[in-house]
Design goal:
The chain has two domains: 63 residues, no CATH class; 115 residues, no CATH class. Helix content is 62%, strand content 0%. The protein contains twelve helices and no strands. Helix 1 packs antiparallel against helix 2, helix 2 crosses helix 3 and helix 7 crosses helix 9. It starts with 8 loop residues before the first helix and ends with a helix.
Length: 234
């Protein structure tokens, strides 16, 4: 079974190359790299320049372990302390920048159609703050005049399965029947919104195409006028 590798193998290898007399094979084995990568670092040929990371400071190696390796080229360095794996902390989900402007619309839709869902659940589902939710509920949001409730699934802010799970959990906690007409009717609202968005995209594409054609015609006409002007001067 192979041993744990350093948290930052390339940076660690760079430090070992610069600060020890270990062989390239030993460094490559310890860091989990190909020996040619280590050779490139030593020859300063690597495409990326790494800032060295001291494995002694991080506890992954000790001076004594490095000395053992330097004394015996066949010695395999042993990891002294496994690196702490960095994991993402719990919190609101990440939303791509392109979709963040749609969040208020999605939150407004949930507040209208599923008031039983708590602020904490909305925050986790959409990836927003309670202040934003409160502002939308109380209609004090800075952009409230332009916010239109839209299904967060259609907007791509969450999946249908995630939304259904949150709705079911909130309904169960509130003692409600999940199969209410309002919930069942949301499918029609969703399809209508999809059709509306598709129509908007088609209209925008048509307008862009027409604008491009007009620009092309104007450029052709200008070029023709310039050519005629040049001929008249000659």
């Amino acid at each position: 079974m192979s041993q744990t590798k350093p948290l930052m193998p390339h940076a660690t290898a760079s430090w070992l190359v610069d600060n020890t007399a270990l062989s390239f094979e030993q460094i490559a084995e310890f860091c989990g790299l190909h020996i040619l990568e280590v050779q490139a670092m030593a020859d300063d040929l690597a495409s990326s320049k790494y800032t060295g990371r001291d494995p002694i400071h991080s506890g992954e190696l000790t001076h004594e372990e490095i000395e053992r390796g330097q004394a015996d080229p066949n010695y395999v360095l042993q990891m002294q302390k496994a690196p702490v794996q960095v994991s993402r902390t719990k919190g609101p989900r990440y939303t791509p920048v392109s979709k963040r402007q749609d969040k208020p619309d999605g939150i407004a839709w949930i507040l209208r159609h599923h008031p039983e869902i708590s602020d904490a659940q909305i925050s986790k589902l959409i990836g927003t703050t309670r202040n934003t939710i409160t502002a939308l509920r109380e209609r004090t949001h800075w952009n409230i005049q332009n916010i239109q409730p839209k299904d967060p699934v259609t907007l791509g802010l969450c999946s249908q399965r995630e939304l259904d799970a949150v709705v079911a959990k909130a309904a169960k906690k509130a003692g409600l029947d999940t199969a209410t007409p309002e919930v069942l009717g949301s499918a029609d609202d969703r399809q209508a919104l999809i059709d509306e968005l598709r129509a908007e995209r088609e209209a925008a594409a048509k307008a862009a195409s027409e604008a491009a054609q007009e620009a092309e015609a104007a450029a052709w006409l200008q070029a023709k006028r310039d050519a005629e002007a040049n001929e008249a001067q000659q």
